[in-house]
Sequence to fold (331 residues):
Amino acid sequence: MQDTLVQKRHHENLWQVLQSYWQLTKPRIIILLLITTAGSMWIASEGQVDPVLLLITIFSGALAAASANTINCLYDRDIDYKMKRTRHRPLPSGRIQPFHALLFAIVLATISFTLLTTFANLLSACLAMSGIVTYVVVYTHWLKRHSSQNIVIGGAAGAIPPLVGWAAVTGELSWVAWVFFAIIFFWTPPHFWALAMMLRNDYASVNVPMLPVVAGDVTTAKQIWIYTLLLIPLTLLLAFPFNALGAVYVMVALVLGALFLVKAWALLERPADVGVAKSLFKYSIFYMMLLCGGMALDTLPLSQQVDAAIASNLDMMLTPVSISQIFQLPW
Fold:
């Protein structure tokens, strides 16, 4: 049945060919990865990132992510064909042949590695390649079909782009870069499990042991709440104690974190409500985008002035005061 369907699917023009290869890269997933890369580069350069380096690193990161997503589609084409939601993707529908998809992924990865090595450094290029390996081998091949904790461990692949951005700017990895890695790592389970709760029946139909399928909605909602609780203080580490960002970022992080907790608590109270899970999933995307926006906002001159004023006032408040100063006595 599948072979018959594959033989009947053909492209009618070059535009359709380009569209199919574009769909193979899952571009909507890539955008968020690039935002975290840019955010990391912004912090590493203290708001003074080289625009050429920024563009090349983002473009190279997009190619690396596209390569990983293409191999993911290649590996999962059997289960994609069984699900109505994914049956019409380029590989299961037969619009692209597996060998061509593999060749496409290799070319994308090669270009990404070459650009990063040439215009950034070898460390950033190796990190980008490690992201591909982690996503394809650790998540797609090893964990996705065998463990309900697949997205927890496999989520490390999605946390590598900030490391790539940091390394591209500095040529090394500091503790701040690893904190950013941890933020993405702990953000991934609430983000992806909310989606899995929406698509539980699809995953169950192809025996993919996502947490909602294996443990149910109640347990999944509890896990989402725990990871969200852990995520919020992690975001504040960029300001205290590492001083990479200031008060403006802290205010943004606290507001966004509070809203995230509200969404997670709502799901904890109504774990069977798909609408609540969908709301949390959508918010998690905006959360990460706006958090990175808060990082960029904190580096603007006006924000720096606000940070300096707050720091000055805190110093005055914390400076020891003598009794004579308190009562304004002459002795």
